[in-house]
Amino acid sequence: VRNAENRRIVLASRPEGAPRLDNFRLETGSIPIPGPGQVLVRNRFLGVEPAMRGWISAAKGYSEPVPLGGVMRGFAVGEIAASNNPDYQAGETVTGLFGWQEWAAVDPPAILRRVTETDLPVSTALGVLGVNGMTAYVGLLDIGQPKPGETVVVSTAAGAVGSAAGQIAKIKGCRAVGVAGGPAKCHQCLTEFGYDAAIDYKAVADIGAALRQACPDGIDVYFDNVGGPILDAVLEQINLGARIAICGTISATIGEGQLAPRPNRQLLIARAKMQGFLVLDHFGRFPTGLAELAQWIREGRLTYREDIIDGIERAPEGLMRVLAGANMGKQLIRLAD
Ligand SMILES: NC(=O)c1ccc[n+]([C@@H]2O[C@H](COP(=O)([O-])OP(=O)(O)OC[C@H]3O[C@@H](n4cnc5c(N)ncnc54)[C@H](OP(=O)(O)O)[C@@H]3O)[C@@H](O)[C@H]2O)c1
Q: What is the DSSP letter of 163?
């Protein structure tokens, strides 16, 4: 371990508009020495989140902006190489906010959990058995509250969160309709993720007409990852008592207002509910949710896709892929052994 290097991605500058590769910089340093109470983690996979666009912007969000020159914030999974904490042992696999770096000396609050699903690939701890799977679980079940026979629409339907949300809707006996970009993702929605219908929002001329055709009984639950015109079209077709879970706003540019019809009339007429949520407020649901998600995977009822690229130097490219919709499944960065 000694004399080895720690490579990390730091934030070089704040993006003006869409993030670019040159907003990041690869730095090499020495492996950190864990302080009192800390553990040293060797990261194996890094996660890429659309939310990173917000984390690196100076605009006010739900978390502090990543400081300039600081290691890029991000989830990772890896093994404990050394521990100064009696609660953690060397050799344990853990996941948490360890940052875009090969090695991390972290305080225990940065650790989200021990990874105990040894029968499943360790990378799942960053996707379907990580924040993405739990976002789908909490957002659909607790916020969306689907009932058997209802119609559930999911946007970014083939993505890490969306693909899980659509499959959970099916497990709960709903009609699931996915909205995704491009024929490959729509094909995946139908053949891998079990959606009853898939709409390619990039190809259809009229998203409202496409939704009406795919949802002949109207829309009871909308799991919204995008906002924008797709949300506007959904609002026109919600049923009495509909629930709209606002999970993400990836179609909107940070800090830029969107001109759109006001939703109050549709919400009033349908006596509907629209609620934003952050998965990080729902840690109490993780033990139950992760156990259930893992069980569904083992039973073959829940499947997932990962889009893996190799090498920490390519992590910023991973973010560009996600923001361009080029990722097919959970975007991950695999680090060398
Ligand atoms: N509330 C929470 O606690 C929470 C937690 C985690 C994630 N999220 C949100 O969940 C959503 C999905 O995240 P994920 O990690 O699963 O990523 P993902 O869906 O695997 O990847 C992002 C996808 O967003 C779509 N996209 C990108 N730019 C877009 C645009 N301009 N308009 C419409 N769609 C666009 C692309 O899919 P298409 O090709 O299909 O457009 C892209 O593949 C994001 O909005 C994220 O912020 C929320």
A: H
The 3-state DSSP class for residue 209 equals helix
179 lines ligand 1 (CB under 6 A): no
Cβ of 50 closer than 6 Å to ligand 1, yes or no, is yes
* Cβ atoms 333, 48 nearer than 8 A: yes
User: Contact at 8 Å (CB) between 31 and 3?
Assistant: no
Three-state DSSP class for residue 332 = strand
Relative to the CA of 202, which ligand 1 atom is closest? 41
- The closest alpha carbon to 67, from 14, 8, 7, 6, belongs to 14
Ligand 1 pocket residue status of 131, Cβ below 6 Å: yes
By most ligand atoms within 8 Å of CB, the mutation choice from 53, 161, 204, 281 for ligand 1 is 161
Decide the pairing of beta strands 151-155 and 197-200: unpaired
The residue whose CA has the least distance to atom 36 of ligand 1 is: 325
* pLDDT score, position 161: 98
Residue 189 contacts by C-beta under 8 Å, 6 or more apart in sequence?
157, 158, 163, 166, 178, 180, 195, 198
Residues 6+ away with beta carbon under 8 Å from 28: 5, 6, 7, 8
* Per-residue pLDDT, 2: 45
Is the four-CA dihedral 51, 53, 55, 60 of positive or negative sign?
negative
Per-residue confidence (pLDDT) for residue 288, from 0 to 100: 98
Rounded Cα gap, residues 162 and 160, in angstroms: 6
Whole-number pLDDT of residue 4? 77
Q: How far is CA 284 from CA 4, 270, 272, in A?
A: 38, 31, 27
Give me the percent of the chain exceeding a pLDDT of 70. 97
Write down the pLDDT at residue 255: 56
CB atoms within 10 A of CB 310: 11
**Checking DSSP bridges between strand 39-47 and strand 273-276, what pairing results, if any?**
unpaired
CA distances to 12, 49, 154 from 54, rounded to whole Å, are 15, 10, 22
Asked if residue 252 has pLDDT above 70, the reply is: yes
